[in-house]
Write a structure and sequence with these properties.
Chain A: This is Centromere protein T. Chain A: Pfam families: CENP-T_C, CENP-T_N. The complex is a heterodimer. By secondary structure, chain A is mainly alpha-helical. Helix content of chain A is about 65%, strand content about 0%. Chain A contains 27 helices and two strands. Chain A has a two-stranded antiparallel sheet with strand order 1-2. The relative contact order of chain A is 0.08. Chain B contains four helices and no strands. The longest helix of chain B is centred in the last third of the chain and has 48 residues.
Chain lengths: ~575, ~140
């Protein structure tokens, strides 16, 4: 390894510093190590993080990580040599922590790096207290030198860190350590260790304190199982999130009460209904105030499908879940009173239904709420859809325990059997009607519940927004939460575009124009009589977009955009 | 003077609003009573008050939205199209409204047809005697 280096006659800042440091007498590394290491590690962290930001290339980062790890090890070593913190030690620490990999020449750097790394690892081990590797310790600082020197040399030619520039100005050159370093490097190359090099990834972003991505070997069996689960879960989530009817406890869908209430919709192309339901529930989610019981019907219809599929696919699992739920809903069904709770449970129910769809028993509580919602929804269906129905909810809730208890059995039953169960009062007819016009209205998309690849094109564009969301959340987010966010965004944008289309058609146009968007924003409450669209544009958009939206006078007596 | 007028106007509007709210409350109370007797479940006063308040607010929203929709379609009169746009969120409501709209349209058409027939008959009647008169006079 040392042979690969050629003697560098010209003194670089790094070499000079190295020489200065190497001239120090080696002492037992163990004595002040513990006290030193912490300080030095802290020192290490900040420069390394600084370096991270400045470096943009992966290769450079990798090499720098390795170099950093080496540095750290040397650091540990070097700390033992000096008893107190002197400017020299500080400089040395900084020097060591500075990334020594060159951006342009990663290959040449790679070779020397592992070797010193290995040596460093051995030193580190010895630092921990093992007596066996005491002997090589004497050499370590010098061993490092050639590697560092070579790296530093290359790096110096390509890029000068701010510190190094300062160092250049400050430190006097010294030539002596150089020769010693080269001589000792030859001997150190013979040292071998089996210690694994330090994982540099943990240093990556100390400020963010995130775990490095764990990579496990993919188990084919579990992977296929997951595929099946998610494919089944795909259909339910769409319908689950769809219905946002306000006092809809509609979400439920899973339970047999759904089937009770909607025997008819399942007849008419269940898939269309599901699709329609997904569209509807999505819209109802936004328009909480204007909901009737119509939407819950679709959601339930969609859920019927899913439940059927689920029941056929995983009867055992669902029975397990339903068994749990059968007991719990009874307890909780009576407990819930507030209407707001129902609305909140909508969200939870959605999640629960989704989880249920994937045949996971992870969220029994959500399931409880789902069943509760189902029960109350079933009762609500019996009443006319009105603007507010707090009383309906309470009466529905009393009915929910009974319905919930029947859930377990129904989950096991086949879909056809669901349809055969006696439908609830005539109001069931009313909910069943909306799905049909809906399916007629929307272009029926052939959706196969369980076609996993099909879902991706809908969600790929939302990946970006979901990541933004998780960034602004400032907290680590579960993967499921991110998926939920994606789904919500999907529904939101679908609804948005539907509205825009309707607005344009309302004005007798086939193209969506800014006036339609202004109307939409007005409905959303963003644009009011006090706050106009221009004000919002000025407030939030950068200048480039503002120029395109707000007419401005330009030179030559022109106005852009033209009115 | 102007301020007094404005104040008086405000007062008037406010009292008018209160009267409207009272009317809504009364109607809501009646409807709730019907439902209560139907379902054998009582409504508390607070519930009725809450429902009427919400209904009133919603009516205001509807009115504003309808005006926006009409203006968006460059009309100065609110149309059934605007109402249908407003009700599109709720499927059952939309269906109901569409049906009602069709019924009304049919009714109007029938009426118009009747009226037209009547007019034609009248014209014929008036024309025939005139012709008869002319013929007689000619003769």
């Amino acid at each position: 390894m040392a042979d690969s280096y050629s003697r560098d006659s010209e003194p670089t800042t790094r070499t000079l510093l190295r020489r200065v440091l190497d001239t120090a007498d080696p002492r037992t590394p163990r004595r002040p190590r513990s006290a030193r290491t912490d300080v030095q590690r802290a020192l290490l962290q900040t420069p390394s993080s600084r370096r991270l930001r400045s470096q943009t290339k992966m290769t450079a980062r990798r090499c720098s990580h390795r170099a950093r790890s080496i540095d750290r090890l040397t650091h540990v070593q070097a700390s033992g040599h000096l008893e107190e913190q002197t400017p020299r030690t500080l400089l040395k620490n900084i020097l060591l922590t500075a990334p020594e990999s060159s951006i342009l020449m990663p290959e040449s750097v790679v070779k020397p790096v592992p070797a010193p790394q290995v040596v460093q690892a051995s030193r580190r081990e010895s630092g921990r207290g093992s007596l066996e590797l005491q002997l090589p310790e004497l050499e370590p600082p010098t061993t490092l030198a050639p590697g560092l020197l070579a790296l530093g040399r290359r790096k110096q030619r390509l890029r000068l860190s701010v510190f190094q520039q300062g160092v250049d100005l400050g430190l006097p050159p010294s030539q002596e350590p150089h020769g010693n370093a080269d001589a000792s490097s030859l001997t150190s190359s013979l040292n071998l260790t089996f210690a694994t090099p330090l994982q540099p990834q943990s240093v990556k972003r100390p400020g963010l304190a995130r775990r490095p991505p764990t990579r496990r070997a993919v188990d084919v069996g579990t992977f296929l199982q997951d595929l099946r689960d998610t494919s089944l879960a795909l259909a339910p989530p769409d319908t689950v999130l769809e219905d946002t009817q306000p006092f809809s406890q509609p979400l439920v869908g899973r339970s047999p009460s759904v089937h009770h209430s909607l025997p008819c919709p399942s007849h008419s192309g269940a898939k269309d209904v599901e699709r329609a339901a997904s569209r509807r529930t999505w819209s109802s989610g936004l328009g909480l105030q204007n909901n009737g019981a119509g939407k819950p019907a679709q959601l339930l219809a969609g859920k019927v499908e899913e439940v059927g599929a689920l029941a056929m696919g995983f009867p055992n699992i669902s029975s397990n879940i339903s068994g749990k739920d059968g007991i719990e809903p009874l307890q909780n069904g009576v407990g819930e009173e507030a209407e707001e709770r129902m609305e909140e449970s909508l969200r939870e129910v959605e999640k629960a239904a989704e989880a249920q769809g994937s045949a996971r028993a992870e969220e029994p509580e959500g399931h409880i709420e789902v069943t509760e919602a189902e029960g109350s929804w079933g009762a609500v269906e019996a009443k006319e859809p009105e603007g507010s129905s707090g009383d309906e909810d309470t009466s529905g809730r009393t009915a929910s325990p009974e319905l919930a208890s029947s859930t377990p059995e129904f989950l096991r039953a086949r879909r056809l059997q669901f349809l055969e169960t006696a439908p609830p009062p005539s109001t069931a007819v009313l909910p069943s009607e909306p799905p049909e016009p809906l399916s007629a209205r929307l272009p029926p998309k052939p959706r196969i519940p369980g076609s996993r690849p099909r879902q991706d094109p809908y969600k790929t564009g939302l990946n970006h927004y979901a990541k933004l969301f998780s960034f602004y959340a400032k907290m680590p987010m579960e993967k499921k939460a991110v998926e939920m966010v994606e789904k919500c965004l999907d529904k939101y944008f679908q609804h948005l575009c539907d509205d825009l289309e309707v607005f344009a058609a309302h004005a007798g146009r086939k193209t969506v124009r800014p006036e339609d968007l202004e109307l939409l924003m007005r409905r959303q409450g963003l644009v009011t009589d006090q706050v106009s669209l221009h004000v919002l544009v000025e407030r939030h958009l950068p200048l480039e977009y503002r120029q395109q939206l707000i007419p401005c006078a330009f030179s030559g007596n022109t106005v852009f955009p033209a009115q | 003077m102007m301020e007094e007028e404005k104040g008086a106007e405000e007062q008037q509007r406010f009292s008018y609003q209160q009267r409207l709210k009272a009317a809504v409350h009364y109607t809501v109370g009646h409807l709730c009573e019907e439902v209560a007797s139907d379902k054998e479940m009582q409504f508390s006063k607070q519930t009725i008050a809450a429902i009427s308040e919400v209904t009133f607010q919603q009516c205001e929203n509807f009115a504003r939205d309808l005006e926006m929709f009409a203006r968006h379609a460059k009309r100065s009169t609110i149309n059934t199209e605007d109402v249908k746009l407003l009700a599109r969120r709720s499927n059952s409501l939309l269906k109901y409204i569409t049906e009602k709209n069709e019924d009304i349209a049919k009714f109007n058409l029938e009426r118009k047809a009747k009226k037209k027939k009547k007019l034609e008959d009248e014209n014929k009647n008036s024309v025939e005697p005139a012709e008869a008169g002319v013929v007689e006079s000619e003769n």
